[in-house]
Amino acid sequence: MPHTVYLSPAKINWFLHVTGQRDDGYHTLETVFQQIDWYDTLHIQLRNDGNIHLQGDSCGVAIETNLAYRAAVALKTFAHQHNHSNDVLGADIHLQKNIPTGAGLGGGSSNAATVLLALNQLWHLNFSHSQLQSIGLKLGADVPFFVSEHPAAFAQGIGEQLSPLDLPKREILLVNPNVHVNTGAVFTHPNLPRQHPALTTSLFELQQQLHEQPFQAQHRNDLESVTFELSPEVKMVYNALQHVAPTRMSGSGSTLVACPMSDDESAALKAWVANAPAHWQCRWANTISTQSTNGDIL
Ligand SMILES: C[C@@](CO)(OP(=O)(O)O)[C@H](O)COP(=O)(O)OP(=O)(O)OC[C@H]1O[C@@H](n2ccc(N)nc2=O)[C@H](O)[C@@H]1O
Ligand SMILES: Nc1ncnc2c1ncn2[C@@H]1O[C@H](COP(=O)(O)OP(=O)(O)O)[C@@H](O)[C@H]1O
C-alpha cells in the first residue's frame, strides 16, 4: 500500500501568562502560539488488519506512551464509540524526529495533531476540527492549537480556547542547551507565579502590538523563573542572549527564542552563535505566517 508523508511543525510561545489554577490542578493560561518551519516527519500507511504500529524514533518513551501512537488509538476508539466506521482502522506510522523533545517546542503535541488530522482523512472519518480538538486535548494541552491548522493563535483556558491571529513571518534564533524540561515539574513547583491578571487589550490591539514588537515589555513567560531555578543552564543561555537581542523562553523551556529587530541585532546574533558552546544547539528558523503545513500531504 502507498504511504503518505506528513509534516508536523514545532511552535513557539511569544508570551505565556499563568492566570490561575483549576480544581483539577491544571493551570489557566493566556499565551500566543505561532508555528515555525522546523518539522518532524510522519510516514503513514493504511493496514488492513486493524492494527496500529509505530516505528522510527522512540522519543525516549515506550511505543504505547508515544503521543503519535496514543493519538491513533484515541481516534480509533472515538470512531468505534460513535459508530462512525465499520471499516478496519489500522495504520503503520513511521516517526522521524527532528524537533528536540522536552524543549518547549510542542513536538509531541504536534505529532499527535498530525496523526489525528491524517487518519481522520485516510480512514474517511470526517470528524470536525472541534471533535478532533477534544480528542487531542486529552493527549496534551497544545494539541488543539496544532489541530486548528491556524499558524498563530491567542490561547486561553489550558490552551484549548483559541482565537486565530494573523502574525508576520519573522526570522528567529532558537537556542537549546540540550536540557530536557519536565512540563509537569514546572507547573507543580511551589514558586510558580499563578496570578497574572488577564489581558485587557482587544485581539486586534494584541495583533497590532505583536506586529510591532513580538516581545512586548508588558508580556512575560511566567514559567521562566521556575525553569531557570530547575535548570540553571537555561538561565545562562537566557542571560547571554538577552544582551544581544530581545529574548524569551518558549513554553516550559528549555528553548530560548531570540528575535532580532534590526540588521545590527541579526549580525550580532550571528557572531554570538559562532562563539556559543558546542552543546548549545543553535538553529535559525522562520515563523509561519499564512497557511499551515500541518497535515499537508507532500
Ligand atoms: C507549557 C506549554 C505551553 O505551550 O507547552 P510546552 O512547554 O509543554 O511545549 C503547554 O501548556 C503544556 O502543554 P503540554 O506539553 O501538552 O502539557 P501536558 O502534557 O498537557 O501537561 C503536563 C503536565 O503539566 C501540568 N499542566 C499542563 C498544562 C497546563 N495548562 N497546566 C498544567 O498544570 C499538568 O500537571 C500536566 O500533567
Ligand atoms: N511523539 C513524541 N514526540 C516528543 N515527545 C514525546 C512524544 N511522545 C511522547 N513524548 C514525551 O512527551 C514529552 C514532552 O514532549 P515534547 O512535546 O517534545 O516537549 P514539550 O512539551 O516541552 O514541547 C517528552 O519528554 C517525551 O517523554
From TrEMBL:
* Gene Ontology biological-process annotations: isopentenyl diphosphate biosynthetic process, methylerythritol 4-phosphate pathway; terpenoid biosynthetic process
Please list the residues that make up the active site.
11, 142
EC number(s) on file: 2.7.1.148
For the GHMP kinase C-terminal domain, which residue ranges apply? 217-271
Q: Keyword check for Transferase, yes or no.
A: yes
Residue numbers binding ATP: 100-110
Name the source's superkingdom: Bacteria
Keyword presence, ATP-binding: yes
Q: Name one Pfam family in it.
A: GHMP_kinases_C
Q: In which pathway does it act?
A: Isoprenoid biosynthesis; isopentenyl diphosphate biosynthesis via DXP pathway; isopentenyl diphosphate from 1-deoxy-D-xylulose 5-phosphate: step 3/6
Q: What InterPro entries does the entry give?
A: GHMP_kinase_C_dom, GHMP_kinase_C_sf, GHMP_kinase_N_dom, IspE, Ribosomal_Su5_D2-typ_SF, Ribsml_uS5_D2-typ_fold_subgr
UniProt keywords (A-Z) are: ATP-binding, Isoprene biosynthesis, Kinase, Nucleotide-binding, Transferase
* GHMP kinase N-terminal domain boundaries: 66-148
> Which chemical reaction does it catalyze?
4-CDP-2-C-methyl-D-erythritol + ATP = 4-CDP-2-C-methyl-D-erythritol 2-phosphate + ADP + H(+)
GO terms, molecular function: 4-(cytidine 5'-diphospho)-2-C-methyl-D-erythritol kinase activity; ATP binding
- Protein purpose: Catalyzes the phosphorylation of the position 2 hydroxy group of 4-diphosphocytidyl-2C-methyl-D-erythritol.
Cross-referenced PANTHER family:
4-DIPHOSPHOCYTIDYL-2-C-METHYL-D-ERYTHRITOL KINASE, CHLOROPLASTIC
Q: Which family does it belong to?
A: Belongs to the GHMP kinase family. IspE subfamily.
By what name is this protein known? 4-diphosphocytidyl-2-C-methyl-D-erythritol kinase
Task: Please give the organism.
Answer: Hydromonas duriensis
Its lineage reads: Bacteria, Pseudomonadati, Pseudomonadota, Betaproteobacteria, Burkholderiales
